[in-house]
Amino acid sequence: MSLISLVSVQGFILLSVQAHLPQLRPPPCNMISKEEQCVEAKGFKATIFFLALYLVALGSGCLKPNMISHGADQFRKEDPCHSKKLSTYFNTAYFSFCVGELLALTVLVWVQTRSGMDVGFGVSAGAMAVGLAILISGAFFYRNKPPQGSIFTPIARVKIIISVIPIFACTIIFNTILAQLQTFSVQQGSAMNTRLTTSFHVPPASLQAIPYVILIVLVPVYETCFVPLARKLTGTSSGITPLQRIGVGLFAVTFSMVAAAVIERKRRETYVDSGELLSIFWIGPQFLIFGVSEMFTAVGLIEFFYKQSLAGMQSFLTAMTYCSYSFGFYLSSLLVSLVNKITSSSSRHGWLSDNDLNKDRLDLFYWLLAALSLLNFLSYLFCLRWYCSSQSPSPDPPPGPRGEDVNHLNFTSSKHVAADRDIL
């Protein structure tokens, strides 16, 4: 992780240097103005830019899943206290992630707006360097598991990967909805009254911070209030099982799109009938509901992948969580293109083809996503029943190299399988 963190730091430094030096970037221009022609970055300038982006992407893609699984590896299953606190660790890790996202969407954006992109990228590089230093400072206290060959060698591990693919696939639609909140919902806010006071306007892009604000508030409440109460009712150390948690989130996210569709219809009708702009705060509920659903689905998926994997598979399966984000955003682009193609005809435009929300039918697109989300939840219930019926108690894992006890790394047991059946 230390080496891959350096890759991200190098990527941010390269972005900062390119944004600072005029000879490494195209001349500034107004991209909104139709009269001004912007010069496209080519050759060496484009190479530097994409190299920096790929360095950041490579570092982020390798760092996140390994960081989460490395932290979870510090807990021992044979210690009841450690096993009980594992779910708390996943909640805390996601809480930290949300704090970072909120700072990036608010403080870092403010710094970039006031001081320039070069300073913003420099701050990002500095933050990564500080995080790397903190990680290295605890190197002598970590419990590290040495590599044990390919994770695909034992047949049992291949079976585990195959068995979790349907659960993984059911979270792709969830992240497709996330893509809409980061694109169309921001555009929706731009077509509304953004004035908060006579001198202050709410930037539509800042609406993306709402789910993270909700998560920062709800995750501690979930851990301190909901989990102890649910633990008494269910007897499960984490309150509810990871699969139950995923199911709650997949069901709740449907209402985010229902709220988005209702508000968009009201916004459009208000503008068409009277020319008035609806307040931007009307679209708050769709972000609020999504924040609640993400607390259940995202953390539940990470915990599920970790607990159901054998020794040596934790990082690989945790990385599948972030693959779900990627597939969700790719599906979003494909879905928009398909909707425009299907709804277009010789006499009318598609639902999303005009790039003008007062002419487009974004509300119908939201209803489509709500229907897909509900169907996805029903598919999840089916996949869940199949997954639970296909599980069997796992044999005790063999001792690791040099007599190392790897039992604490194997969370697949008949106890967890029985707990996962409770959702049905």
From TrEMBL:
Its main location: membrane. This is Major facilitator superfamily (MFS) profile domain-containing protein. It comes from Ensete ventricosum. The lineage of its organism: Eukaryota, Viridiplantae, Streptophyta, Embryophyta, Tracheophyta. Residues 1-19 form the signal peptide. Belongs to the major facilitator superfamily. Proton-dependent oligopeptide transporter (POT/PTR) (TC 2.A.17) family. It comes from the Eukaryota. GO terms for cellular component: membrane. The chain crosses the membrane at residues 43-63, 93-113, 119-142, 154-178, 209-230, 242-263, 283-306, 327-344, 364-384. Keywords: Membrane, Signal, Transmembrane, Transmembrane helix. It is found in: Membrane. GO terms for molecular function: transmembrane transporter activity. It is a multi-pass membrane protein. PANTHER family: OLIGOPEPTIDE TRANSPORTER-RELATED.
